[in-house]
Every structure is written in C-alpha cells, then in structure tokens.
Amino acid sequence: MNLVQNAIDAVSLGAVYALAALGVGLIFSIMRLINFAHGELIMAGGFALYVLAGQPLALMTVVAILVALVLALSMERVAFRTLRQANPATLLIASFALSYLLQHIALLIFGSRAMGLDFLGQLNQTIEFGGLRVPRLEVATVLVTALLLGLLTLFFKRSPVGVQMRAAAEDFDMARLVGVRADRVIAVAFALSGTLAGFVSLYVVAQGGSVSYKMGVNMVLVAFVASVIGGIGSLPGAALGGFLLGIVSVALQAFLPEHWRPYRDAFVFLLFIAFLLWRPQGLLSRRADRERV
Fold first, then answer.
1. Considering only CA atoms, which of 203, 236, 197 is closest in space to residue 220?
2. Strand 126-129 and strand 132-135: pairing?
C-alpha cells in the first residue's frame, strides 16, 4: 500500500517538475538560452497571490498567471531581444543578471522573510479510497498538468504558430528564411513559458503555504536538471525528465535511511552526475543538437 501511495506522490511531484522543465525547455529550444530568470516568473506569480489575498480564488489564480505571463514578455522585449544576436555565454549571463535584479526588487518591496499565505487550503484535505489517503492538491496537480500537456500538444500540432515554433526549434535560421517571423515566435514562446511558470507558482504556494523572494530558485534548478535529463532542447524530453526527477526524489525520500533523508537532494544530484557520465546528451536528445556538438 505504501508503494502505491509513493507512486501517487511521485507522479504529482513529477507533474510540477515537468511544467517547470517545459517552461525552461521552450525558450532553449528556440533561442538556445537557459533562462535562469524563469524562477522569478514563479516568484512573481506567488507575490501576485499574496497581494490579492482574500480576493476570490478565480481572480487570484488568473491574475497570478497573467502577472507571470506579462513579466515573461517584458523579459523578452527589454532584455533578451536586444541581445538576440549575442553569443550564448552573454545570454546566459544576462539571464543570471535579470534573475538577481528581480529577486532584489522583490526583496526591497516585500522584505527577506517568507510570508504565510493560505491559498487553496481546501485542497490540503485528503481523499480516502482503498486504504489510501491522497491529498486533493496532488489529484488537482496531476489533472491540471495532463490538461496543459494535452493543450500544448494540440497547439504545437494544429495551430500555425505552433507549427512555426516547431520549425524554429529544429532550425531557426532556415525557418526564418521560409517566412517564419522571429519576433512573433519568440514572444509566443516566452508567453507560454510565463503561463507555465504561473501554474507552477500556484502549486508552490498551495503546497508550501508561503511566498518569498527566493521561492523560484530551487524550482528553476530542478527544471534545468530535468531538461538536461530529458535532452536539452527536446520538449517531450523536458516533460519526461520532470516526471523521472519527481519519481527519483520521492523514491529516495521513501527508501533512504531516516538519518540520510535530509540529504536527499545531494543524492538526487549525485545520480544526475552519474546519468550525465552515462548519457550526456539526455534521453531524447535531438539529432540536430548532437551534430552541432
């Protein structure tokens, strides 16, 4: 029975990691940019929830997602569009600088202490069936993630912009030569990335019950690791990497000796290093990326 309970927990956590990894992978697939400021999109969504505490839940949810989306578009327009022709190292440094700037703006406005927030508290109740006690938050997380993944799949396969984004991810220069508008495709990628970050912020706040200026740091690191495991630049790989990372995290928490469990993350990253030694290109690496290397 414990094994089934752990499996449910792993799928729920992996679903959140998958959304975060997709947000990072979307930008990399087109711009070859690891946007470490993605964590601050999650942070912005969290603080939007804090500012609107006490308002109707629907309003809080919509505004949090919109704040993350608008901030993502602002990042692209103000910071990354002007550096688009720069080398990858410059873009990476810019993302770190932007992350640092946004964190300290939040620090100036809200302070350094984590602030409690009861968001979606009713989802912390459990559903009992067959001897299992499953938090409603986990059920909602899995269902929302499945819905978002399905909508993203339809978007990329059926919509004109989605098809253009897939073409740009395969060969951006060739896509531009056949008429794909770079500004539009990149802006849509950032908008989708911000939307996914907004949904992740809902889970982080509901699960942790607090917001802080560093709340997105760990999640963006996890998203980066999941993207590398799945195959950096591969969107299905990013989702797969997120689920695998969730499974490994929950498995270590369940089966490590009790006195080792506080060091679970260290074991996760140790396994990540071992994985890179075995398969540095990731599970679903794209052929084009291998040829570039």
1. 197
2. antiparallel
244: tokens are: 């695998």
Cα end-to-end span (Å), the chain: 46
| Predicted TM-score (pTM) of this structure | 0.90
Q: Tokens 């395969």 — which residue?
A: 170
The C-alpha atoms of residue 130 and residue 105 are separated, in whole angstroms, by: 48
Closest to 36 in 3D by CA, of 275, 211, 169, 197: 197
Phi/psi for 289 (5° steps) reads: -70, -35
Element (H, E) at 188: helix 182-208
> What are the residues whose beta carbons fall under 8 Å from the beta carbon of 150, sequence distance 6 or more?
none
User: Tokens in use for 117?
Assistant: 């927030």
What letter does residue 124 receive in the DSSP assignment? G
3-state secondary structure of 177: helix
**Do 143 and 19 touch, CB atoms closer than 8 A?**
no
Spatial distance between the Cα atoms of 82 and 150, rounded to a whole number of angstroms: 33
Other beta carbons less than 10 A from residue 62's beta carbon: 14
Give the residue carrying structure tokens 């993630």.
145
Mean pLDDT rounded to a whole number for the chain:
87
Q: What is the pLDDT of residues 273-288, one digit of tens each?
A: 998 888 888 888 654 4
Nearest to 156 by CA among 169, 147, 146: 169
